[in-house]
Amino acid sequence: xxxxxxxxxxxxxxLIFAARLVDVSLGTLRVMYSVQGKRFISAILGLVESxxxxxxxxxxxxxGQQDLIKMVGYAxxxxxxxxxxxxxxxxxxxxxxxxxxxxxxxxxxxxxxLRDKNFGVTSIRGEGRDGEVEILFIVTARRKLGExxxxxxxSDESAFVTIEPxxxxxxxHRSGGRRAGTFGDRK
Length: 187
Fold this sequence. Notes:
The chain has about 190 residues and is of the alpha+beta class. It has 2 domains: about 5-90; about 95-185, Alpha-Beta Plaits. The protein has helices spanning about 5-35, 40-60, 70-90, 105-115, 145-155; strands at about 95-105, 120-130, 130-140, 160-165, 170, 175, 180, 180-185. The N and C termini lie far apart (about 55 Å).
């Protein structure tokens, strides 16, 4: 049988765990939107995140004594919140990326395949260790990176590919056939 003090401590630890899970997940999303320049969304998430954090910390400190069970709940909530926050961020896949592709033998085929799928592709000649190469630049929504990578790998499994997040891109062609659009507008 669990005594009242232990039950209260376990209940408090579960509440703290849940609060930390929420505030750390929100913190991950807040940082993602901050990097993208979405200030308003970041500010709202920060407001909610800090309120939940204050609640969680106050629950740990109100007992007036060190309560190991609540401290463990706090730490586990932080860990789980990090896991959930990163997972949610991947699901949202918000933002824009620059994909650079270097292929020794299949640049033309890769560019044609991507263009057939309405991706904008810019190519330039470059010099690699073993001679001339073609460098392809593709700016696309993050949620379309899987499609870009599949298309590249279908033509050249050994192509060198780098992917970077970008905060703003204007003009040009973007996937979906739209022209002169703007990615990452600051709001």
